[in-house]
Design goal:
This protein is of the alpha/beta class. Helices cover 62% and strands 14% of the residues. It has one domain: 5'-nuclease (Rossmann fold). Strand 4, helix 7 and strand 5 form a beta-alpha-beta unit. The chain is globular, with a radius of gyration of 15 Å.
Length: 135
């Protein structure tokens, strides 16, 4: 089985704004998959027709991995633990929820998650191990 990689929203937005990851993306030696949660985050931020076109192209470029019912339930459990352990407020927990879902989805498929959001994903990794690469 070939190895999969999933880009977090942070990498895609950085790349779309500045093209800063062009070389790394070109040099990837793995099969890329999209995460439905990442695509939802991208769609949420589009306001212009050109942005919608880019998101549509990203969505059509690779098969989409989606969180399972088990991933959703586990995400709530992990966020509850984070709340108890760190005292995070509701806003922080909402901000983390999609990242937890992205991480759990990548983990479920054995994919490497590529992000530029080191702090949040390293925090999540303290609760569930998954393959992580920070750019």
């Amino acid at each position: 089985m070939s190895e999969f990689a999933v880009f977090d929203t942070s990498v895609l937005i950085d790349h779309l704004r500045t093209n800063c990851h062009a070389r790394r993306i070109a040099d990837l030696d793995v099969t890329v998959r999209n995460a439905s949660v990442v695509l939802a985050e991208l769609w949420r931020g589009t306001t212009e027709a050109v942005e919608q076109k880019v998101v549509r192209e990203i969505a059509n470029a690779h098969p989409i991995l989606t969180p399972t019912a088990s991933n959703w339930l586990e995400s709530g459990q992990l966020l509850g633990r984070m709340h108890r352990d760190h005292g995070f407020k509701a806003k922080k927990l909402r901000d983390l929820h999609f990242d937890v879902l992205i991480a759990l989805t990548a983990r479920a498929y054995g994919a490497r998650l590529i992000t530029s959001n080191r702090a949040d994903f390293e925090l999540i990794r303290q609760y569930r191990n998954f393959k992580l690469e920070v750019w």
